[in-house]
Fold this sequence. Notes:
alpha/beta, Rossmann fold, 14% strand
Amino acid sequence: MKKIFLISEYILPEQNTTGYLFHKLHVNLKKHYGQQLKLIVKEDAQHAIEKDAILIKNVNLNKKKLVQRLVFELIISLRFLLKIIFNVKKGDTVFSGTTPVLLLPVIFFAKKIKGFKWVLLVHDVFPENLIPAQVIKKNNFFYKILKFLFDRFYAAADKRIVIGIDMKELIDQKVNKKDSIIIQNWIDHCDIAVQSKQDNPILKRLGWENVQPVFAFFGNIGRVQGIDNIIRALEKIPIGQRPKVLFIGSGAYEEPLKEMIVKLKDDNIKYIGPLDPIRKSDGLNACDVAIVTLADGMYGLGVPSKAYYSMAADKPLLAIMHEGSEISCMVNQLSIGWAVSSGNPQQLAELFLKISEDFINDKMSSPRKILIEHYAEPIAMEKIRSVISDVH
Length: 392
């Protein structure tokens, strides 16, 4: 019997967003395929993974440091390669994401050796995402080599699933085909509670539970989120007129964020650090408006999953990104918030003030209702099973 192998670095909702998405996918596919479905995943010292999984031994290195991250990627990917070669047979189907990044060449070469089918779920576009992260320049010779190679790795998949209209445009161009399948990220709205502001422990601790609107950024504070654009916009608003803005999360950019907030000298702007994953609903409900942002230059390179989480908490979105991006188009078409281009702090500052002035009178659709109708987990799972059936 031909098998289906779900291959991922993360598989548990307690780990991160990738873990949450692949956990939901694994549970759903297991119900449909039973013992035909096999799991190859990196081990987790803190959380138990199902006993039938084929585990990849972890590497204890600091992934926030570029050199250590590279070493981590090399070792982990080699271990994935060995597990795939020894377990996947000709005619089987492999379903993978795009992390760790060297998993793509691993599956590319393993596919040539073993002759299995490959469905690739694209969450990240490498190496293009290195440019807005300011890791490398577009005219760098090493970047050109990476792009030449990874264009072929992405193209080798039998089916490519992308998570947004802008990503489809980029991936189709990257692989010189026009067959990418759009399936947006999936969220089970039942996993996110809806709270009143008066019941939110974070806002109560800050004394902001009776103030509106409160804006909040909740998630990875990384190099490609465009955090500095938010701060520059707030700098353009005089003290006393700035809205209350809350930052929650951690990442490579958190130290610069702390420094910028100190320089603002404004109690309306707060950073409270990361939250335990079990308190996700508290973080998502600690606002009236959820900020969803990507840095300038990120068009087509990612779709912030935090948008769907905030919709599950019934929060309107302030989308700060390219006007043609998946989230900006969704916000405008479905009337669940506001959209503004990234890299334009003056325009963002004006929008902050406009939202603050009009918030009480603004009427828009319920983001949670829109999520349930258009982006619920069962909708995505049915589409993914259809894609797998086409190749398996």
